[in-house]
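F.,

This is the one I mentioned.
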């Protein structure tokens, strides 16, 4: 098989590409490089620069490289930005997906893995979120991921494409420093960014009905997430049919205050976080049930939160030479 990975030069995409390549899969990457970095990829993986909205380019790539499966990660993913720019998010996340699926169906590609998100669930009042938990997204970003799942399944049924939708929880860490998240939009690099600018990290709300009053989240190491993509791709390559939607998480909750304590230990920065008011829409608890991924994909997370934070910190210092804290 030959897999096309859209968004494969991004933070998550590059981890997926490297993991699949190291496992012997043949790959081609399509990325518009708006946030992707070419040198994250091994030199022997062809990189096609372009947008998932470019139908002609997609058709050409699928044909010229004899693509037999697609892993679609290309998307915008900032919740706050999606609130401010909903039309952009719908155009790129849903419109781009529709263009990819149209090209896939036209080329007769029969295997498709879709990068979804736990944002599809919104704010459920449950101890563990299962795949059957009702979806009620609270941001345009989450809406685009849920609409994307609908579109993937409908296209799969219409054209006989076997599909998988992977709902990620909170991604952190790095398999190696050069692959680390270079942005400051997810919680761990956001904390690193504030510390290196001489500012205390922030906790949004400490009055939740949780053990220490701060929100509880399920953090998944990006290397584990990449291995989940490999497992999904191989399951499809083995002949799995129909559609499957699975959570990609650990099943273990970590509070924001616990995470801040761990960051302080790893960085050696003693500054205590400042508490600010809750952000609208933040759930008190969002922890995955990862049982279905184990049953259907033979996958489970192998890395813990300390390893996530330590690897993320090594990556942050790699991309920000001279970083000091405290």
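My design for it:
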């Amino acid at each position: 098989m030959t897999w096309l990975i859209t968004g494969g030069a991004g933070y998550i995409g590059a981890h997926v590409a490297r993991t699949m390549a190291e496992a012997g899969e043949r790959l081609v990457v399509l990325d518009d490089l708006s946030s992707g970095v070419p040198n994250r990829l091994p030199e022997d993986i062809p990189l096609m620069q372009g947008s998932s909205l470019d139908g002609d380019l997609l058709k050409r790539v699928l044909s010229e490289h004899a693509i037999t499966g697609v892993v679609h990660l290309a998307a915008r993913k900032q919740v706050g930005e999606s609130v401010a720019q909903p039309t952009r998010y719908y155009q790129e996340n849903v419109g781009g997906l529709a263009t990819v699926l149209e090209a896939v169906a036209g080329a007769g590609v029969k295997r498709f893995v879709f990068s979804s998100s736990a944002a599809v669930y919104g704010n459920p009042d449950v101890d563990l979120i299962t795949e059957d938990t009702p979806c009620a997204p609270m941001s345009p970003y989450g809406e685009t991921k849920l609409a994307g799942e609908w579109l993937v399944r409908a296209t799969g049924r219409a054209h006989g494409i076997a599909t998988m939708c992977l709902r990620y929880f909170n991604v952190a860490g790095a398999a190696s420093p050069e692959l680390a998240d270079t942005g400051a939009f997810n919680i761990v690099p956001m904390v690193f960014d504030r510390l290196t600018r001489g500012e205390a990290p922030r906790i949004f709300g400490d009055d939740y009905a949780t053990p220490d009053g701060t929100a509880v989240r399920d953090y998944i190491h990006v290397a584990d997430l990449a291995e989940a993509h490999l497992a999904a791709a191989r399951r499809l390559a083995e002949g799995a049919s129909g559609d499957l939607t699975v959570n990609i998480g650990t099943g273990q909750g970590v509070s924001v205050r616990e995470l801040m304590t761990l960051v302080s230990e790893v960085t050696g920065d003693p500054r205590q976080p400042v508490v600010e008011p809750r952000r609208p829409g933040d759930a008190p608890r969002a922890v995955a049930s990862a049982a279905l991924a184990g049953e259907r994909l033979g996958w489970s997370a192998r890395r813990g939160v300390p390893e996530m934070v330590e690897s993320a910190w090594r990556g942050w210092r790699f991309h920000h030479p001279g970083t000091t804290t405290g």
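The CA atoms of residues 63 and 117 lie 30 Å apart.

Talk soon.
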